[in-house]
Design goal:
The structure is a homodimer of 239-residue chains. With 239 residues, the first copy, chain A, is of the alpha/beta class. Chain A has a single domain, classed as Class I glutamine amidotransferase (GATase) domain (Rossmann fold), CATH 3.40.50.880. Chain A is 26% helix and 21% strand. In chain A, the strands form 2 sheets. An 8-stranded mixed beta sheet of chain A has the order 3-2-4-5-1-8-9-12, sandwiched between helices. In chain A, strands 6-7-10-11 form a 4-stranded mixed beta sheet. In chain A, a hairpin with a 2-residue loop joins strand 8 and strand 9. Chain A is globular. Chain A starts with 5 loop residues before the first strand and ends in a 7-residue tail after the last strand. Chains A and B meet through helix 7 of A and helix 7 of B.
Chain lengths: 239, 239
């Protein structure tokens, strides 16, 4: 069913001490190719403005030869998406992002275009919403979207900013415990634990990991470490 | 409106290296007083059983002189709540807990009885659901409750397991950043950042902090550190 899609799904935008969108810049250049008009979705921003966010992203994409316009600034964002050659969805709070994708009508519009081949770039929350649901986000549920169902333009779940590290002396659940709870209630799903500095590049039915190794989680199985460069199908089984 | 309620809201059940419900045991003893029949709500457990959870809690409460029965084991949990002298709601996953409170009808039943004076003990997720909403939980949204609105038997929000610490070299949001995002979208709310080893004791309109100091967060203000023993109103202003 979903065969034509092209996505670049990043764990995070920026590594400590590096410029904004520094590590993924060359991946974005290679993924987008010739100059594109990129529709940017800044709705995950909560404590800073949509204009400011769009300007920062446009600055980076300009150095790569692409033009960015913010869908927040359009009277009819669904219509404005029509003229895009690609769409980019920025990180921030996943719940605020998803709620706004619903209220603007962009959820359906982006899903339809991406399933028909519109290139999609997302980072952090922008990678969460590409999945069937946002149930593997790390974000706080600071507002209530109509549903946790998301774009569903890939068949697996992503846990961005994945880390096995825990705070010393702190009793809160580890990331691995949280994902085990998710899989207990969602036994058919596959979760990519995508560490910072990693991305999944989706070309039709093929998924390639670039950057750092990731962990793949399934119910009732030990997590599987996947090396950078691995080629997988939509179930994230290494070929 | 809410004037008769009595609650003991714990950040967490257990400190590292201590027995289950070790640190709060004396607080629970003092709060409950004479022997009580305590209805236990184990629905936050995801990767372990409701029976097992109830047995562990019953074991601790027995040493304090109280009898515990699990509402999960009752054909009619709402009716079974009627014979309780107190209710205890255990930690685990907040979303799973809240979803089950809705599907069993216990959300309304517990709210009504607690507003009319039934003593309530909660820890972690069990403290989250006592608040107006669960929007300040740390948990992963592994399932979808009908709403994020919760028991609303206190007027403020709790962030349990509160810590200002962050993982070194990790780019994910700090707890303080997450709470700032919550307050940006919910500007009239007050959030208690309750560290592990702390609890709020609510007696009618009066709230007392016991254990370690906490931080109170409000929109557009610096967080306020509140010392143990502080007496507050429902807006968490120190008197």
């Amino acid at each position: 069913m979903i065969m034509d899609q092209r996505l670049l799904l990043l764990s995070n935008s920026t590594l400590p001490g590096e410029p904004f969108l520094g590590w993924p810049a060359e991946h974005i250049r290679d993924f987008l190719g010739s100059p594109k008009r990129v529709a940017f979705v800044p709705f995950a921003a909560v404590t800073f403005g949509h204009d400011e966010y769009t300007e920062r992203v446009a600055g980076v994409f300009k150095t790569l030869g692409h033009e960015v316009y913010g869908l927040h600034a359009e009277a009819d964002p669904v219509k404005a998406l029509e003229r895009a050659d690609a769409v980019a969805v920025g990180g921030g709070n996943t719940f605020q992002l998803l709620r706004t994708l619903y209220t603007t009508g962009l959820l359906r519009a982006i899903r339809k275009r991406v399933r028909n081949g519109l290139p999609y770039i997302g980072w952090s929350a922008g990678s969460n919403v590409a999945c069937p649901t946002v149930m593997t986000t790390n974000d706080m549920p600071i507002c209530e979207p109509p549903s946790l169902h998301a774009l569903h333009v890939v068949g697996f779940q992503i846990n961005p900013h994945y880390t096995a590290a825990t705070l010393e002396g702190h009793g809160g659940e580890s990331r691995d415990q949280r994902l085990a709870e998710y899989l207990e209630l969602n036994r058919d799903m596959t979760v990519a634990g995508l560490p910072e500095g990693s991305l999944l590049r989706v070309e039709g039915p093929q998924v390639t990991l670039e950057g750092r190794p990731m962990k793949v989680f399934r119910h009732g199985q030990e997590a599987v470490e996947v090396p950078s460069g691995a080629r997988m199908g939509m179930e994230l089984n290494v070929r």
